[in-house]
Amino acid sequence: MNTIRNIALDPGFGGFKAAEVQSDGINVKAMPSVVGVGDTDIGLLDLGGVTGRKRRRNLPHKVGFDGLEYLVGNNVADYARPVERLDFLRLSNGPELRALTYATLFDLVDGGAIDLNIVVGLPVEVLQGPDARAIVKGLRGWLLGEHSFTVDGQGARLNVHALLPMAQPVGAFLEWGLDLRGQWARGTEDFTLPAGVCDLGFNTLDLFTVKGGEVSARFTRGDTLGMRRAVTALVDIVKRQYQRSLSLHEADGIMRKYAKPGPMFLALAGGTVDIRPLVRSSLDVAAGEVSSFIEQAWGNGRQFAHLLLTGGGCLALGDRLRQQLPHATLLHDPVTANARGLARLAQREGLRWK
Fold first, then answer.
1. Which domains does the chain have, with CATH numbers?
2. DSSP conformation letters of 80-103
3. Which of the chain's termini has less CB crowding within 10 Å, N or C?
4. How many Å apart are CA 345 and CA 180, to the nearest integer?
5. Quick one: 218 exposed, middle or buried, by C-beta within 10 A (0-12, 13-18, 19+)?
6. Are residues 316 and 267 in contact, defined by beta-carbon separation less than 8 angstroms?
7. What's the average pLDDT block by block, 10 residues per block, for the chain (354 residues)?
8. Which spans in 67-201 are helix H?
9. DSSP for residue 178
10. 164 neighbors 120 (Cβ within 8 angstroms)
11. For residues 132 and 141, what is the distance between their CA atoms, to the nearest angstrom?
């Protein structure tokens, strides 16, 4: 049997991430959580060279299994209508989940025949909810065992020996506290003092708290209050004001550019329009709901010695969150922080795989 590699998988609704601790750091792969059914082959179509040298297209991955092929990741909307399924049962099974998992793992392990143990991050609301056991059972049911598939025409085989489900924000806490061997690297006091993690993703807002080295149930909760609220608001405003339809993932791509200064042009019939004011208004919608949820759960957060901000939504709303939680710290690269921390957990010596 090959050496078993211990990795982390963070199946976010906005981005799919995988991470593995290596000798020189943590290798992370991420791609948009977008899947569609279509084809990237455009035959002999081109523009006759009028735009200059022919540019290489940034194509989505083509993932094949069970006799079908799916487009995954970047620019799927250029070739197919994205599947926009946001229910939590999507985290249990289904062709979209499988296609994203295969593509992301293939990128991480660089193809071939690989044996894996996987720590999988799931939202707090999922692991606290009544369907938690069913979702985890469904995930184990298809992910454990052997898998044969293709990515961009290249065959791959994975054998998943063990799976450990963990709350996604646990990864942020461990990214903050563990070294690359999976050992606690901060002072003993930091481990015992109360700490909170605010994890703002595309479809979820998770508030996760630790006290004395244990999960604190009183201040831990989750809800579907992620950046989807802002994205949905932007879709509605653009549709109402300009009669222009956007998919959720197209709107999310626009929203992610807000941190960069300058106009945000959207193509419309007859030209373009700067929609930065609409994006700002949409972010205000999400910010209000997020702030209200945090206020009800945590107040001003002063009961925590450490407050950590993570998740892609913190890039857009980080300044507003720090106004509400002034002693909070935004983790480095918050989009992948959960995956990096769960990869550190996978490296822990003596980790008991279930």
1. 4-39+60-225+287-346 (3.30.420.40)
2. SPPP---SGGGGT--HHHHHHHHH
3. N
4. 9
5. exposed
6. no
7. 86 90 92 86 67 66 92 85 73 87 92 88 88 89 94 93 93 94 87 91 90 87 85 93 88 83 89 92 89 90 92 84 88 94 83 53
8. 95-109, 124-128, 132-143, 168-177, 188-192
9. B
10. yes
11. 14
Q: Which amino acid is at 324?
A: Q
What is the spatial distance between Cα 259 and Cα 276, in angstroms, rounded to a whole number?
11
3-state helix, strand, coil in the chain (%, to 5): 35, 30, 35
Q: How far apart are CA 224 and CA 293, in angstroms?
A: 11
Helix axes 228-242, 248-255, angle to 10 degrees: 100
Of 296, 8, 29, 2, nearest to 164 (Cα)? 8
